[in-house]
Amino acid sequence: MSFIRHTARPEIPNMSAPSSNGIPTDTHGKLQEDYPPFQLGDSPIDDYPPFKVVVIGAGVSGIHAGIRFRQRVPNLSMSIYEKLDDVGGTWHANKYPHLHWIEYQFSYDRKTDWSSLYSTGSEIKSYLKSVVDRYALSPYINLQHEMTSARYNETTGKWHVRIKRLSSASSQTPSEPEEFEDTADLLFSGTGLLSRWSWPEIDGLQDFKGLRVHSGNWDLGGASWEDDVKEWKDKNVAVIGIGSTGLQVVSALQNKIGKLYNFARGRAWIAPPFVRDTFSQLLSRDLAAADENYVFTEDEKKALQDPELGERFRRELEQGMNSMHSITMRDTPLQGQARFDTSFLFPFPIIGRNGVDIREKWKPLPRSYLSVCVDEFPNWFFACGPNSVIGTGSVIIMLEHQVEYAVMAAMKMQRERLKSVEVKKEAVEDFDKILDQYFPRTVFSEKVRTWYKSGKEEGRVIALWPGSTLHALRALRHPRWEDFNYEKRDETTNRLCWLGGGMTVNEINGTGDRSWYLNDGYVDIPPLNASPSS
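That's the FAD/NAD(P)-binding domain-containing protein sequence above. Prediction below.
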């Protein structure tokens, strides 16, 4: 299901302006002399052609992508496909005991009534569902629709995406096929890094006759995990693993079952509390009695409704998290891990130029450009790709910027009437060299088994960004367009054909706003006696 939205593109302050460099002289398999003589474009410069986006996944990345593509790309047609039966991604799929995460919210959609600094998984999912409702995304989202393959058409510059309707999909009718194809000018995948769980390799595990439950697929039928374990009072339960998930599960189950065994391959590295004092001080708690209780009292919840305190609380906690990157350098502690498939080998084919399958291209190691795209796969951008996670700081702000990068690429394609945008192989190779030289300086290269290295003790760090969160945001904020190759949509020798005939839509029609350059959001008013911005 696709919905088309025709609007003028809003002006976006402080975004780098895409350029028109790098247009190859040989597109569609033709040389320049095969094109018609140089001609002036015949369209208004802001008469944006229809643009289709397909988004895979309706978790945090997919939800943010739906919001930003709609906001910034005019004349847009968009479909979001999600294989699960509800939105939320990881926060819908994961229901294991004592699932908590530090306040998880978009930078532009602040929630002021969290129950705790470390919110429950169900509370985070509820927040994400409320975002979908507030931004009216439901008409674009197709639940229980699973992508099975994607293939790039080099002639048209379109992605052809195969989608399978799962048997219980609410939109399915007897007359509809089980599998169908959708096409897109730009494909964006927001499948979570921790969305593909896997069992550890343990001899005899498959022969175990009792109940086996993976934390990444906790679905025992109860309304909550507490309901699931009500009958476990006399049971012996073994928990394998002592990463962050294992620690949460063990602490939740220990008083609800007969006997608990926790099997760990190695030590668990736990960082000391880093926000306790700030948390207590902001809430006027007694610092001398500060403990690990991060649950808000009713009075504290009421106080945080105050915009000034709420904003200060949020900013100071973010400031604290963004001041910790130095602990990732050598001679400082590591943290524990969980068991997921982080090989970046998709369970379905994604075929780029010349029939290249991403599953083969990313063997033995996945490589990307700034964690958002890869050569030989034009018009495909992703969040949660190789080296996209940060060691310290906010995960969600990183995902936001990865999405913003894809949106800026879409804006460039539409405005300049480009058939394809593809990162250069040399740029991917240079980013790869940066990874090789950066991580040996960090604790992540120590001989410790971690999902950052696909569950290995040694080898390439394939999950983490080579730097701090703030470093990543700076890098992604302003795309370096000269690192890309381009193909024009139109067969013309005029690389500036997007300039059109010299007028805008409103001028030609004699309607609409013709003084928009004075609008708030476009006018950037400098402060008096301003110093250079950071």
